[in-house]
Amino acid sequence: MSNFLKDILPTRGYQLQVISLLSSQSRLLARIQNLLRRFEGQPELVDGGSFLLDPNTYTLYKDSQSLLLSSNEGKILLALVENRPEIVSKSRLGELLWGTNQYIDENALQVNLTRLRKTLRQLNLDHQIETIRGHGYRLRRQENQ
Question: Which of 82, 53, 85, 81 is nearest to 69 (CA)?
Fold first, then answer.
């Protein structure tokens, strides 16, 4: 124990309380620094207009809510956000999901899009994805864009 603490604190009980307090503060500071180091170098969240998307975990954030998307849902939404306001073709989505632009049953893509739309509905993000018949999909423009 430092002489400083011995000089300013009247009893050993107070001295131990101060040491304990200082120790817990330094543990808290160490934990905070560890968290900051862990997130250092992580890519930024992708701005989807009315939501944010973590491109690593496919976690969707809106206000104080968050949802973890499946891998396929995340890949689709990330492609739509990154290409907004452009149309993302069905073949491009097929490449992203299954690694090929060869013909994949269109129903498989529809199932994934239906699941994504249902997930978006949970965060009141209804009608975010627009179907462009014969071409593909895109995110709807926001009113302020």
Answer: 53
Q: Where does 45-111 show beta strands of DSSP type E?
A: 46-47, 52-54, 59-62, 65-68, 88-89
Does the N-terminal peptide bond of residue 85 adopt cis geometry, omega within 30 degrees of 0?
yes
Using the 8-state DSSP alphabet, how is residue 57 labeled? Answer: T
Q: Average pLDDT per run of 10 along the chain, which is 145 residues long?
A: 51 55 67 67 79 90 90 95 93 88 77 94 91 92 58
Q: Is 131 helix (H, G, I), strand (E, B) or coil?
A: strand
pTM of the model: 0.68
Number of H helices, E strands in the chain: 5, 7
